[in-house]
């Protein structure tokens, strides 16, 4: 890991090369972020590219995620209902075992979806 003086020299070099210091800080190390002439945003301490998102983008992603979760939940409930009906009329023990495995998988998915929503 670089010393603080080395980090400052690195930031100065970025500024000399045309990079712009931004008001945002790295979410990992809290060092100021720099926008390079290429348009990429990077943290000089972590030496990683950073992507900045707006609150609107985050809200859009949250809405899309909720829609996907709702669709998955509806599908899981539908499949659980279908498998339950199939199990009621099934006489073959091997088939019942297969239905039970599938039911278990759909119920696990339903449980995971509920945890994701918390």
TrEMBL record:
Matches recorded under InterPro entries: SSSCA1
Source superkingdom: Archaea
Pfam family, one: Auto_anti-p27
Protein name: Uncharacterized protein
Native organism: Thermoproteota archaeon
